[in-house]
Write a structure and sequence with these properties.
Strand content: 25-35%
Number of domains: 2
Pfam family, one: ADH_N
Keywords: NADP
Low-confidence stretches: none
CATH class of the largest domain: Alpha Beta
Protein name: NADPH:quinone reductase
GO molecular function, one term: oxidoreductase activity
CATH architecture of the largest domain: Alpha-Beta Complex
Largest sheet: 7 strands, mixed
InterPro entries: ADH-like_C, ADH-like_N, ER, GroES-like_sf, NAD(P)-bd_dom_sf, Zinc-ADH_QOR/CCCR
Structural class: alpha/beta
Mean pLDDT: 96
Shape: globular
Length: about 350
């Protein structure tokens, strides 16, 4: 099969198109013919060996493959060759304390497709049948590949962790990112007012089209907490949706309302952030970590995608052979929404 293989860690140049043997599904597994795969910052970290992501080499990236079943492993029931599917990224044990409690995103024996085993930057990928989600005929493979990491993670952050409620004000950082575009739609779905930040007027206007009510250009207003307070009459945001990290952390904390919740899932610009401790305890604010999404989160998201309530935002689709250029494009922060690879 054709695949994009990394045989060493480094920049986008380590991604090379090669012919490699097509994998064979084992018991309980399926072979999926991949037609599209979403790109994520986790791909960039794994490629570079950053943030503790040291994949065994050679490696194939890609945690969001979508396609159709090409072969079934022994013992697989309920699926047929030709079924359209989306492959869930998290492989979980199902038996640990977290899996048993419905918090499978925290499984202590978790593996991630495209990180801990070969992923979807290839014509075929093998995955456990338990990881499959059926894909409705009207959803394209490209759209399906743009859903999981963006909407699943944003849903877990806003709904499962921050306990979003109608009428609240939600501040979405980096609204032009894939996860930012998802957060705007989820917040609007719950009847919330959305304040969006982005690095350009063009991105902000696109955020407005998705439903953002207040727009803040953080390059022009680096102390964006002042703009948040002005827009809320000095009250602040009930929820701050943070995933940028060091560059925005201090201002994100300062943007919180009394009893506000700052929920974060990443730290793209750095792992360390200055925190005004007084501002947290005096306001009885909450700082909530959030990792990935549970299967229940993702099922809730897919129901709304199928109904047309949520619309994945795709900035650009690259052919598989241009995976290295797609990584450069994502790293340059030119993106509004998701970047997707197409595998014909």
């Amino acid at each position: 099969m054709k695949a994009v293989v990394m045989r060493r860690r480094g920049g986008p140049e380590v991604l090379q198109v090669e012919e490699v043997p097509t994998p064979v599904p084992g018991p309980g597994e399926v072979l999926v013919r991949v037609y599209a795969c979403g790109l994520n910052h986790l791909d960039l970290y794994t490629r570079a060996g950053a943030q503790g992501r040291k994949a065994k080499l050679p490696h194939i990236l890609g945690l969001e493959p979508a396609g159709e079943i090409a072969a079934l492993g022994e013992g697989v029931a309920g699926w047929e060759v030709g079924d359209r599917v989306l492959v869930g990224a998290f492989i979980v044990c199902g038996t640990c304390e977290f899996c048993q409690a419905g918090m499978d995103n925290l499984c202590r024996r978790r593996q991630i497709i495209g990180v801990d085993r070969w992923g979807g930057y290839a014509e075929y990928v093998v995955a456990p049948a338990a990881n499959l989600m059926r894909l409705a005929p009207h959803i394209s493979y490209e759209a399906a590949a743009a859903v999981q990491a963006a909407f699943g993670t944003a849903w877990h952050m806003l709904v499962s962790r921050a306990r979003i409620r109608p009428g609240e004000t939600v501040l979405v950082l980096a609204a032009g990112s894939g996860i930012g575009t998802a957060a705007i739609q989820i917040a609007r779905h719950f009847g919330c007012r959305v304040i969006a930040t982005a690095s350009s007027g063009e991105k902000l206007e696109k955020a407005r089209a998705l439903g953002a009510d207040v727009l803040i250009n953080y390059r022009q207003q680096p102390r964006f907490s002042l703009a948040v307070m002005e827009a809320t009459g000095g009250r602040g945001a009930d929820i701050v949706f943070e995933h940028v990290g060091s560059d925005t952390w201090k201002e994100s904390v300062a943007s919180l309302a009394f009893r506000g919740r700052l929920v974060f899932c990443g730290s793209t610009t750095g792992r360390w952030g200055e925190t005004d401790l007084w501002g947290v305890f005096y306001k009885e604010a909450e700082i909530l970590g959030s990792f990935g999404a549970t299967r229940a989160d993702f099922q809730a998201v897919m129901e709304r995608v199928e109904q047309g309530i949520f619309q994945p935002v795709i900035d650009r689709v690259f052919p598989l052979e241009e995976a290295a250029e797609a990584h450069r494009y994502l790293e340059d922060r030119r993106v509004f929404g998701k970047v997707v690879l197409r595998i014909p």
